Amino acid sequence: MENLHQHLSQALKQLRQANGWSLTLAAARTGVSKAMLGQIERGESSPTIATLWKIATGFNVPFSFFVQSGAQPSGDVATFSQPNAQMQVRPLLPYDARLRFDLLEVTLAAGAQSDSSAHESGVIEQVVVLEGELLLGMAGSWRRLQAGEASQFAADQPHSYRNPLASPLRFHSLIHYLQRS
């Protein structure tokens, strides 16, 4: 886990430097406080998955940018768990820059909910439930998906994932990003 936190720290620093952004500007663009961004960069904070999504969206990079283990020569990907262990995300494939997609395996603990802020304009997400039951929330309504069912939706709006059961939920999330201009 320490290697992952070190990778998060370095990845955020590299993004800020590559964009020429101060912590203040990065906070404005991502919606994450300047203090929190500084703590992540110094390796003092363990960000939630929701925080990483905000940062990825603000910097216009795929989520897997933060959880691909750049320190390992094999380019292996790591599972990222929220500090409260309610949600885990594991990239199944390295980010594909040509096709512009992330393929993630997401696990939600029993009774857990994760709220996602809107991704960049035009982003499409597809989810496929592997085990359990997913309540997918958008625009004030919830759609129930059982194991083996799938849904596609515009992820450029706030959305939520909820596990209503007393056992873990596991699903795949395929996220299609826009072509950068």
From TrEMBL:
One GO term in the molecular function aspect is: DNA-binding transcription factor activity
Report keywords, A-Z: DNA-binding, Transcription, Transcription regulation
Q: Which Pfam families match?
A: Cupin_2, HTH_3
Keyword Transcription applies: yes
What InterPro entries does this protein map onto? Cro/C1-type_HTH, Cupin_2, Lambda_DNA-bd_dom_sf, RmlC-like_jellyroll, RmlC_Cupin_sf, TransReg_Diox_bact_type
**Origin superkingdom:** Eukaryota
The cellular component terms of Gene Ontology attached to this UniProt record, alphabetical and capped at eight, are: cytosol
Family matches, as PROSITE patterns? HTH_CROC1 (PS50943)
All copies of domain HTH cro/C1-type, residue ranges: 12-66
Task: Extract the SMART domains matched here.
Answer: HTH_XRE (SM00530)
Q: Does the keyword Transferase apply?
A: no
CDD domains from the entry? cupin_XRE_C (cd02209), HTH_XRE (cd00093)
- Give the protein's recorded name: Helix-turn-helix type 3
| Organism this protein belongs to | Corchorus olitorius
